[in-house]
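User: Show me an example of a complex going from sequences to structure tokens.

Assistant: Sure. Here are the input components:
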Amino acid sequence: MNLLRFKMLKSAVENGKSTNARVAVVAAGVVSPLGFGLSETLDSLREARDCVTRVTRFSVAECRCKTAGQVADERLLKDQPEAGRARRLHRASSMMIYALRETLAQEPQFKPELTVIGTTSGGMSYGEDYYRSLYRHGSLRDSPAWIANYPAQKPVIDAQETFEISAPCQVIANACASGTNAIGHAFECVRSGRYERVLTGGYDALSELVFVGFDSLQASTPEKCRPFDRHRTGMVLGEGAAILALENLDAARARGAPILAEITGYGMSTDNFHLTQPDPSGIGPRRAMERALQSAQISADSVDYINAHGTATPFNDAAEGKAIAELFGRVPISSTKSMMGHSLGAAGAVEAIICLLALQHQFVPPNINFRAPDQLADLNIVANEARRTALRTVLSNSFGFGGTNASIMMQKFEA
Amino acid sequence: MSLAIAGMGWITPLGNGVDAVWEQLLQGYEAIAEKMSEQFSNRSYNAFRVPESALGRLAPHPRLRRASAISRFAAAAGLQALQAAGVKVEPQNAERMALVFAISNGGVIYTKRFYRDIVEAGAQSASPLLFPETVFNAPASHLAAILGITGATYTQVGDSAVGLLAIRMAEDLLTNEELDYCLVVGAEEVDWLLCDAYRRWRLLRLAPPVEPFNKTARGMILSEGAGAILLSRKGPIMIAQTDAGAHYRKRTETEEIVSQTISNLAQTEVDFVISSANGTFIDEAECRALRRIIPDAIVYTAKPAVGESVGAAGLWQVILGAQALDRRELPPLLHVTSTIPLRVPASRTALTKARHAIVLSCGVNQQVAGLRLSIP
């Protein structure tokens, strides 16, 4: 029956009609400061761990901010079966390989027709190594490897090659919304019936250029990251990689695949206000969330939890908080960036995995370091501790430089 | 699904505007290479650049006051494409147009300047004005703001194949009936740092000419500019098929992956091919694959005349293919210095009955894609 329905959808697409196929998440993998893999990530979320530490990869002596969420190199390399190859690759590749390995361990038969991955800076630290060596007239012996491993598509191709996947790659760089945009576009590709299986997610590795960039904007904080707190002072950066395997739900059920959750809606907007600041009215985030609701064909009161973008910058949280309060009232919200920092292109993907875990284990993850509510918006912040609760529908937000706003809706699978 | 080209815009070192560039190519002209010196040594490079005098006149808009050259190229090409199609973005239809931006190296000039300040003078010297322009989606953001697009905006990153991958993404987006148009823009800017990087990667020639399909791959010349096409569902030039290809793991696999793409696209008649041959290892792979699969098709590449514009290259190729189908003519292939086992246009070549063309994009960093253009 399911297979027949899937064939009918395919036929409709071939005739130029878009469909509304249901989209399942059938497997997922993650590495982030919260942990290596889904299980460690779940533990960190439940225990409200602060995984932000002092930056060790480069000097931060001249920066206001000294901390970030970091993935331990020793473990990243140790967990790669080909340690020699892993040392040659950019650590972003190693993170992608880890996340994809965990995904494929759950669904070894998953053969994607397309891969859509978000990032903001690819192998940026190799570009830094190259420039510094030129500047200092240092050794450029490794420069061909730095240059070859610098492009943003390389970690995606490296991960695919490791598992003999050769699907075409679409690498989306929509700043901090990249991961959610990638998942949203992948969702629409499957929902439209043009594709049956799409691999999606996001990655980013910490780099000096980006760290100093946010510091120069005074967007990052020398203190704790306190999203939505009245006295918030800014963000901290993070890093990581996360992958979700999306499949036409009927096709997945027909082959007996496990359904971890459904993605049911996606909305995006461009607010054209400023290259680095959101429109203070919150119109950009509001439009993205409204479109996600329309896409999922549900009303705002059906949403049980929002994983907010919540960078903890005064401007972002004010605009997002205003939009959430206007649209959703006092739905529980948290920004998990408080625990692991903002992993930029990976953020939307890691946070989608956090939503997935929240749906599977029926809890809302905490917004740590929270002390006092912001008087500008009446929000129901999941302050400092995870809450056990019944969840059916959750929303995840990501907003980025350039006024790109993206929201995805995820739902507990009910047969 | 029906996909058509409604309008095009083209900014290149050889000229500004589709008709102007096309005429130059037909006349057999090539861009004038500009010498660029490396900052830390005596080494110098040549690149095809958009003249400084032309840059200032491109898309004057307050939003671009501090923007890098790449954003100006993109804005100018995007505006040309909309004007050619007679389409205006108004508040009531702003959500019915998507923007997909193709990029490879991005805003390299400002990125280098930003990081140079950090290396030379420390983190406290880093400029908060430069940093936002280093982000990959800065040019797309400027263009969306100038045009007033409020719906879907995507920046896609990749190698020279990214332009065609962006068109494929646009095709996916246009399955949504809430969209009427998708503007696809590819852009790139050149700096000595990029030239040095590609030289160390053994892909760059220090000075022109670019010799296509030569037995010895002597390298490419980098280029800059932008290409834009406005896609809709109806128009005189159809994109009959897109193929998002695959990636090759090693250079020795390039021919096999290119062959698969050509085979997928050559199920029906093919009159000519706009190749991505640029003087590097990909020329041989494309030559062998084309000779084996579609030996009768005429093969042309404009890269000897306009260089390798990486993120913009795929869009430039599509514009070339569409112009050739529309004008029923191909420009002469420049700098043929050895016998090429393909049908190449040695001079301006009439295409009286041509109705189908393949655009083939093989990037130097593992990505391959293609599409088929047709006129009804």
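The lines above are the inputs; the final block is the predicted structure for all two components together. Chain B touches chain A through 72 residues (CB under 8 Å).
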